[in-house]
């Protein structure tokens, strides 16, 4: 049996009509009891992940941009460049070394 936590704080924010309709559709699709449950679940996921989704998205975009630049250069040459490209996830950088 799940024990419900007593909730003593309230957060209020405004949504556009499109955002509100989208939230209602999600609520119906997942079978949530209320819009608040869906919003609370989203907040909980953000808290558990420990990072902002925008930061993750920006990092992914940067990585994809760098990879596209490398592919552009490779496609633009008739022979391989002789570089070994390595991406280090912990450093968030792409480095190139001559083979």
SSE order and pairing:
Elements: H1 17-30, H2 35-49, H3 53-76, E1 83-88, E2 93-98
Antiparallel strand pairs: 1-2
Helix pairs in contact: 1-2
Protein architecture, described:
- The protein has 99 residues and is an alpha+beta fold.
- The chain has 2 domains: 17-50; 54-98, no CATH class.
- It is 54% helix and 12% strand.
- Strands 1-2 form a two-stranded antiparallel sheet.
- Strand 1 and strand 2 form a beta hairpin.
- It is elongated, with a radius of gyration of 22 Å.
- The protein starts with 16 loop residues before the first helix and ends with a strand.
- The model has no long low-confidence stretch (mean pLDDT 76).
- Provide mean pLDDT, rounded: 76
Helix content: 40-55%
Poorly predicted residue ranges: none
Kindly provide the radius of gyration, computed on alpha-carbon positions and rounded to a whole number of angstroms.
22 Å
**Can you summarize the main beta sheet?**
2 strands, antiparallel
Number of strands: 2
Order of helices and strands: HHHEE
What characteristic shape results from the CA principal axes?
elongated
Number of domains: 2
Strand content: 5-15%
SS field, number of helical segments: 3
């Amino acid at each position: 049996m799940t024990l419900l936590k007593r909730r003593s704080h309230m957060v209020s924010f405004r949504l556009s009509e499109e955002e509100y309709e989208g939230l209602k559709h999600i609520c119906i699709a997942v079978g949530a009891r209320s819009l608040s449950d869906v919003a609370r679940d989203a907040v909980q996921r953000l808290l558990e992940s420990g990072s902002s989704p925008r930061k993750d998205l920006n990092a992914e975009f940067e990585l994809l941009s760098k990879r596209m630049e490398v592919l552009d250069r490779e496609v633009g040459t008739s022979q391989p460049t002789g570089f070994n490209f390595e991406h280090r996830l912990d450093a968030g950088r792409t480095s190139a070394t001559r083979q």
